[in-house]
Design goal:
- The protein is mainly α.
- The protein is built from 31 helices and no strands.
- α20 packs antiparallel against α21.
């Protein structure tokens, strides 16, 4: 794969970060145990444990700068920025130099309203360092009251093609922060430097700027166009204010400290998905420290921690957003999901139940509660929540297809196959050719031995729409098997095993197909593979029976007992 320039710059930045956290030289007696425990905890992203052990080893070896660097990373991951500042200060006082130490101490000064350190020109020219250092310096110069030099730095950054759009964006925010809304709009509208591709946060800033220019309708049109493509709590909050003719103040980025927080957040967004999560977390945590109300930074930090399996820290991050934040609903939904992942299912349901009462007019709240209730097999309550979400969205809303699909699955679990089919068909009206729905409904119809020609067409369409989905491909092979078209079943079943090679059911299906086309030794091999992937006991018992007596004998026994698993076409 050919890397883009941004990807290469990301890689260079990560090499720099990796060098800053290199393993410490072998520890001496009495120090090795806590050190190794700290390293293992860091590797596992268990920041609470890592910090506890690093504090022990730093006490044992206070002059070891590499230990301090590792401890700083763990402290930032934990969210203890004050602790990271303390260790970074010790590191610098001992004569050490390190990129993360500089980041922490620069941020500490900026948080205190001191910008001289961050205003120094960066000498690092690799990776994304010129972007990070340049934008931080420009904002720091503005913090010192030097708008002219700040503007010049923005212009210099824009000379690098990969960095130009980021520079223009921050230049616009800097202008807005000093009240030059005309200049800011000129950049964000594309008039000054050409069209900019703005994130939801960029749209939020632009809408606020338009409102300061008495262009509220333009701001509302911009927000409507953006939210038509997806939900944003912040943008919805602005729309509500504008529709109510409430004054819309500019509070997006009002000073240099908030501007630098936005720099850190933007860098996190660049790194997200391209860098290891722990590296992304460094910057998003620093953004959160400078601006605790930066909802997007808080949510990103929480999501990263959740992906790392650090559910306690994720829950704490989500809970840090108060009910006054426009993103409170999303934060509470995130907290509920983190609690569920942490096997605290009852607490997860409690969070969403409370949210459905405090914010009962939001369909997303009820549909998410429906999801959690479904996963905990509280089927009646789940259906009620999905039904409420559908009512709030209104008939015909395209957003309803996923809710109808989810509700249909619960109805199938309750053996309400008529209700399931009705929900799935209504969902397909809203999202035609949606492969998951086509597959689920088609497979269900096959299992019921009804509408088989339509079912086959559904699954064939699903495979065309999602050719690399192993479960859908398995469905196609299995419906051919049900029809007794065994030769046609071989290719899709083999393809399904290629796509999901360790799934017990798919391997079992391929074994059955092989048996029916006379490839009995290969069938036995597939059944043994299926057993090795630990299927549910009922399935495992049937596979063992096939291995012992052959599929033909098993099917005859099942037919005699009235439990046959073959179609009766």
């Amino acid at each position: 794969m050919i890397k883009t320039r941004i990807q290469r710059r990301v890689a260079l930045l990560l090499l720099s970060l990796a060098a800053s956290t290199a393993p410490v030289i072998a520890a001496e007696h009495g120090f090795a145990g806590p050190y190794l425990a700290a390293r293992q905890a860091s590797i596992s992203s268990n920041y609470n444990e890592a910090v506890r052990y690093y504090r022990q080893v730093i006490t044992a070896e206070p002059g070891n700068l590499l230990l301090k660097e590792n401890a700083i990373v763990a402290l930032i991951g934990q969210g203890d920025i004050e602790g990271a500042i303390e260790v970074a200060t010790q590191h610098e006082a001992a004569g050490g130099e390190n990129q993360i130490v500089d980041l922490v101490l620069d941020t500490d000064d900026v948080a205190s309203g001191k910008f001289s350190r961050a205003a120094q020109e960066t000498t690092e020219e690799t990776g994304l360092a010129p972007l990070l250092g340049g934008l931080t310096r420009a904002w720091a110069l503005l913090g010192e009251g030097n708008m002219t030099d700040a503007t010049a730095v923005f212009a210099t950054i824009a000379e690098t093609e990969d960095f130009a759009s980021f520079s223009y964006y921050h230049n616009a925010l800097a202008l807005a922060s000093v009240g030059d809304f005309e200049g800011a709009n000129s950049i964000l509208s594309g008039e000054a430097y050409g069209p900019l591709v703005l994130s939801a946060r960029g749209i939020e800033a632009h809408a606020q700027i338009l409102a300061q220019l008495d262009r509220e309708q333009d701001a509302l049109d911009l927000l409507e166009a953006t939210t038509a493509n997806g939900f944003s709590a912040e943008l919805e909050a602005l729309k509500t204010k504008l529709n109510a003719d409430e004054p819309l103040a500019y509070d997006f980025v009002t000073n240099a400290s908030e501007g630098i927080a936005e720099v850190y957040f933007n860098l996190s967004a660049i790194l997200d998905g391209r860098a290891a999560p722990e590296h992304v977390l460094l910057y998003v945590r620093m953004a959160q420290y400078l601006r605790p109300d930066h909802a997007s930074a808080v949510l990103m930090a929480a999501e990263i921690l959740e992906e790392m399996g650090q559910y306690d820290l994720a829950t704490q991050a989500y809970a840090s957003l108060g009910s006054e934040s426009p993103a409170y609903v999303l934060a509470e939904i995130g907290r509920a999901n983190a609690l569920y992942s942490d096997d605290r299912k009852d607490a997860s349901v409690e969070v969403l139940t409370a949210l459905s009462k405090s914010h009962g007019d939001i369909a997303l709240v009820h549909s998410t509660l429906g999801d959690i209730l479904s996963r905990t097999e509280k089927n009646d309550e789940s259906i009620a929540s999905y039904t409420q979400a559908l009512a709030l969205n209104g008939a015909g809303s395209r957003n309803n297809w996923r809710i109808l699909y989810a509700r249909g699955i619960v109805k199938e679990r309750q053996d309400d196959l008529i209700g399931m089919e009705a929900d799935f068909r209504e969902a397909l009206e809203l999202s035609p050719n949606q492969p998951d729905i086509l597959n689920y409904l088609g497979y269900s119809l096959v299992e019921q031995r009804i509408k088989l020609d339509e079912a086959l067409g559904m699954i064939q369409t699903a495979v065309k729409e999602s050719p690399d989905n192993g479960y859908i491909t398995d469905s196609l092979g299995w419906i051919y098997y049900r029809f007794g078209r065994f030769d046609e079943a071989v290719a899709p079943m083999e393809r399904a095993v290629e796509l999901i090679p360790v799934d017990p059911i798919v391997n079992d299906h391929l074994g059955d197909v092989y048996w029916q086309v006379g490839r009995e030794r290969e069938a036995e091999f597939q059944w043994k593979r299926a057993l090795s992937f630990e299927p549910e006991e009922a399935d495992a018992e049937r596979i063992r029976a096939k291995l012992a007596r052959g599929l033909t004998a098993v099917l005859e026994e099942e037919a005699s007992a009235g439990t046959t698993q073959t179609a009766n076409e």
